[in-house]
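Q: What would this chain look like folded?
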Amino acid sequence: MKKSTFLLVFYALFLTIATPMKLSAQWVATGTLSPAYANCIGAKGDIVYVGTLSNGVYLSSDKGATWTLANTGLTKLSVYSISIIGDSVYAGTTGGGLFKTNLGGSSWTASNSGIPTTPIINTVYEYFSKLHTATSNGGVYVSNDRGSSWTVNNSGLPSYIINGFLGLDTTLYIATGGSKGLYKSGPNSGWVKSNTGLPANGINAITYIRDNTATTLFAATGGGGVYTSTDGGANWTVANTGLDNLFVSTLIVVNGVLYAGNDYSVYVSSNKGASWSALNDGLSSASYATSLKATNNSIYVIYKGQVFRRAINTSEVKEQKTGEKPATFNLSQNYPNPFNPSTTISFSLPEKMNAKLTVYNAIGQVVDVLADHEFSAGTHSLNWTASHLSSGIYFYELRTEKFSSVKKLILTK
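A: My prediction, written as structure tokens:
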């Protein structure tokens, strides 16, 4: 078969198979926790802890393949948060306070001095060498001794329902429940409202992306979807295109990509929230995705009360722009080709526009998305490292609203 004919046949094939596009991995259920209903998760390396609504804590040392009960010392078995800080693990309960163990441990000791046992413990977070605990109905508590004792820090807060923290440089942000929104403070200052543009919904999670151009904050709301800020939280704008449900419970960033869990599924955005697409391959019909955590090349989600895991794409992509403004579109042959494990892919755009560069395997499945954002007019080169893939024939496609092209590349190891 001639090369041109082969490429045309393949192009038709992957248009059929790979639309809509999927990422290279899929969600896979971990070992069964039955009859427990998973509520929260924490992970570091291969070690994973899961807190349940009524059965306490489960521990896995093999990325969730097998689970064992880890409840020694817990006086309450309704666990609302698992926080891993260094080599310490904190379990927050409802009505029982906070408990602590060493990473990999299954025996807990109370870490409650100064914290009432009545609030729900939503998370523990480290900022400027101090631990901060977020509670429902108790506000914020701070510890200078790794949790041995705590003092309340609610000055300026109108709401004592705290869902989470984000420390960024010298600013600590807190997400509050109800209609009170987002607050921030310095290392030794009180809390100040930072809500302009946010809806009157509780803030469930906050995170950020920092690149060469800006630092962007993201807030997950309980009914308003996702909002972004590029001025340190002073002003916020909605970023919901593609989200099918606006109650967003959890939000994380992995390698510059946003992952959100809402009442329907998991969603992903590779362009700072400008658009979202469902990441539900391996998950069943629409249901709650309540907690996301990433570690050691894996992402975990609690979905319908069970734990699912998928691989993180570990490809390295480095991008640079060269030359003058081209007159036409062009996708160049990668060089070197064959390659191991890195190669450079170049393409030209005659005008500013969004471009997506995708790599497929020989049967049309997506194995990597190298870029999916706006580019300026010019010739762009991306260095791609495919050390996570096996030897074989692959294809890469450049697609814009005005142009598409496919070429073949060969990985040899």
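Confidence is low (pLDDT under 50) at residues 1-9, 12-24.
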